[in-house]
Design a protein that fits this description.
Ribose 5-phosphate Isomerase B, Chain: A, 5-stranded parallel beta sheet, about 150 residues, globular, 5 strands
């Protein structure tokens, strides 16, 4: 599994902390930007870069950060095959991975401290999809909807 990271200026500092955490834990990751703090950048660029990588993979994951988490979430979910979820807390992220097999985690830098973010990242990376029939059916339904839009 490879992890793709992306963040705008509001998420940049938290993304950098997540990158350091991933490095220390030995995860394979790629930083898709922003690569420097630029107050004039915009989240759609970075969310698109990450989501395009996840849309073409069945095993990789993405982590996106912006101020509210919602902007990157909206962009990521425009890509077929991406199931992005907004991280609220560790327990909610576990449920999202277990039930919905999210492959992109969106975080809100303005409302999430480093400790909470790293707990959610670890839950996102370590929680497997349950594979239960009802959860598989829901994901198949999502794929069908994507194919018809």
């Amino acid at each position: 599994m490879k992890i793709y990271l992306g963040a705008d200026h509001r998420g940049y500092l938290l993304k950098e902390k997540i990158a350091r955490f991933l490095f220390e834990k030995g995860y394979s990751f790629e930083d898709m930007g922003a690569l420097s703090l630029d107050p004039d950048d915009d989240y759609p660029l970075y969310a698109e870069k990450v989501a395009s990588m996840i849309a073409s993979s069945t095993k990789d994951r993405g982590i996106l950060v912006c101020g509210s988490g919602v902007g990157v979430l909206i962009v990521a979910n425009k890509f077929d095959g991406v199931r992005a979820g907004l991280g609220i807390n560790k327990e909610q992220v576990v449920a999202a991975r277990n039930d919905d097999d999210i492959n992109v985690l969106a975080l809100a830098s303005d409302f999430t401290d480093e400790k909470q973010a790293l707990e959610m990242v670890l839950a996102f990376l370590e929680t497997p999809f349950s594979g239960k029939a009802k959860h598989k059916k829901r994901i198949e339904d999502i794929s069908r909807i994507e194919a018809n839009n």
